[in-house]
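quick one
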Amino acid sequence: MITGNRLKDKVAIVTGGGTGIGEAICKKFAQEGARVVVAGFPDDPVAKVAKEIKEKGGTAIDFTGDLSTMADAQSCVKLAVKEFGKLDILINNAGVFPEVNLLQDYSEEAFDYMIKNNLRSAFLMSKVALPELHKTKGNIISAGSEAGKIGIAQNAPYGGTKGFMHAFIKGLAVEQAQFGVRCNLVGPGPIDTAWTHASTGPMDSKMVKTMKEATPMGRRGTPEEVANVYLFLASEEASYVTGALYMVDGGITVAKGGVGGQADSSMKDEPDGELKLKHSKEGHTEIRE
Ligand SMILES: NC(=O)c1ccc[n+]([C@@H]2O[C@H](COP(=O)([O-])OP(=O)(O)OC[C@H]3O[C@@H](n4cnc5c(N)ncnc54)[C@H](O)[C@@H]3O)[C@@H](O)[C@H]2O)c1
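structure w/ nicotinamide-adenine-dinucleotide:
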């Protein structure tokens, strides 16, 4: 159901839109009137997300491909313009989290996989989208991470890929302001997707426990709580915001010690939200062919 108009008449591409936080961004944006290209790998449930949006009266189309290749990045932007006439918003949300290991044991394969999917996809999508964003005076929002700000043990290379995104978006913000394009970053903390559960991702239960204890709010954030901040930054309400890194992290980047244990158990329930998310735990947590 379209319940708001904060993105009325806007066209958005959301990369990694089939699962996890991306699904929530697609549904939130559609709910606020945006026409959305739900983009992901061929085995991601992007068609399902687009269908679910349409069933609620929103407008969406799916795109499948590997956005770390120039051909597919170009096809994705072309599809948005062909279907919806323009592009206002690019969300670089796609990413992978294939391994957790001490660096001496960390595989080259996982490292290369992250460089390709976490960095190349954002670089290429931004490069290809910019000429269209110049026309609409649009904006780009990329996914950073608490790990990009303070690093993450047993996944130092992942934190490094997100640190790249933090610097990348600031550089873009400075150089693209002259074209009227705003560039910002959302840095999630531990979010309730496939990545942060021992049953669906590479973290073991000890890491999951440490992660929650390090978070003052004592719980994961929901994909919808992250999408709410993407919505603000993508909307005209953020018209004077560029080069900003918005942490949505339950306080984990400012915490000292195991503060999560201090949170009262009554505060640890995640909010229900209003989106019906069906793909939040189907994310990308292994190396795929
Ligand atoms: N979950 C967390 O705790 C957390 C914390 C900090 C940052 N983030 C960031 O948020 C973003 C989303 O994470 P999530 O937890 O929702 O994970 P997710 O696996 O559910 O979503 C990521 C999606 O991107 C897709 N993707 C990856 N590379 C692609 C490519 N080259 N082309 C097309 N699609 C591609 C994946 O297939 C997947 O569907 C990521 O950028 C991640 O780094 C997540």
